[in-house]
Structure formats: C-alpha cells, structure tokens
Amino acid sequence: MSLLGHIAVGVTVARRVTPNPEPQSVLARRMAGLAALAMLPDVDFLLHDLGPSIALFDHRGPSHSLFVAILIGSLVGVALIARGHPNGAGWGLLAIAVIASHGLVDAFGDTTLGVALLWPISDVRILAPWHILPNPQAVLAWQALTDVGLEAVVFLPAWLYAFLPRRQRDREPGA
C-alpha cells in the first residue's frame, strides 16, 4: 500500500481525539505526529536499502509487528509521563493503536508478501483473506498511479472527516 492510507489513519485519529474548539496549530501538530507514527513501520523499507541485508530490516517484517507497536507506543507514553503530561498513558495507548494499524492495514494489501504481525513469537507472515487495498509497485508506472487513485477513493471518507472544517461550538459567556 502507498502512504495515503496510513497517513489517513493518523490524521483521522488526531481529528477524533482533538477537542473542539482547540487551536488549529494543536490539531496540525497532532495530525503530523500521528501520521508519522502511522508511517513509522515503513522505516524498514529505508533501512533495508541503506543497511546490510538482514531479516530484521525486511519489508513488512519486524517493524510491522504488534510487538514493535507496543514497544514504541509504550516509549511514547513513558516519555510523555516523564515530561509531566497529564494523559501520557492515554497517548501511549493511542500511539500503540496507530502504529499497529500499519501492519493490520498492510495485511489487506494486494500482495503475496504478508506481514510479520506476530514477530518475535513467530516469523509467519500474515495476509488477510481479502486483498482489497492496492499495492503500487512502481513509482511512475501507469498501474501505480491507478492504484494510488484507488487507495485515495477507499480512504476518501477518512480524509474528508479529517480535513472538512469543524463547526464552531458555542462558548459559554465569559469563557
């Protein structure tokens, strides 16, 4: 899958957890942060090309596992708690969910590669029984462009929810 779907998850979750009215800058920072967390498992794609060819950096390998999502999300929560954030544990759980969504969404991709969701318990790569999401293989090929377009349509409701303007809630007098 291309990054459109993964980023859609991050920005949609940010929109959902950001109360209204909250400054747009807060919403924008949360969208950027959660979108980055949603994309984080694909760091294996870069590390595989830059580093030695070891199984740890195989695409859709350990970085896509639920274990890594729990580990990184927990580190986010601990870091926020250490900085005195009043809801650091909640944000840690949210980070786990957003990171874990990456591997789960990739399991529905039109590929035979599979996802190492259960690493380090198992090296088995898991695929959903339905391959409903496109998996663009080339950057500029016509098929890749149509696949990205299909993905944009599939995730259009998430994008609309994330970016349509919010209604302003009435404030209490004197607030």
Order of helices and strands: HHHHHHH
Structural class by sheet pairing and helices:
mainly alpha
Low-confidence stretches: none
Number of alpha- plus pi-helical segments: 7
Please provide the count of β strands: 0
Judging from the principal axes of the Cα atoms, what is the shape? globular
Biggest β-sheet, characterized? Answer: none
The helix fraction, in percent, is: 40-55%
Count of distinct structural domains: 1
Question: How far apart, in Å, are the first and last alpha carbons?
Answer: 45 Å
Q: What percent of residues are in strands? A: under 5%
Report what the structure shows:
With 175 residues, this protein is mainly alpha-helical. It has one domain (3-119, 133-163). It is 55% helix and 0% strand. The chain has 7 helices and no strands. The protein is globular and about 45 Å long. It starts with a helix and ends in a 12-residue tail after the last helix. The mean pLDDT is 88.
Briefly say what this structure is.
With 175 residues, the protein is mainly α.
Layout of strands and helices, then pairs:
Blueprint: H1 3-17, H2 24-39, H3 43-50, H4 66-82, H5 88-106, H6 142-154, H7 156-163
Helix pairs in contact: 1-2, 1-5, 1-7, 2-5, 4-5
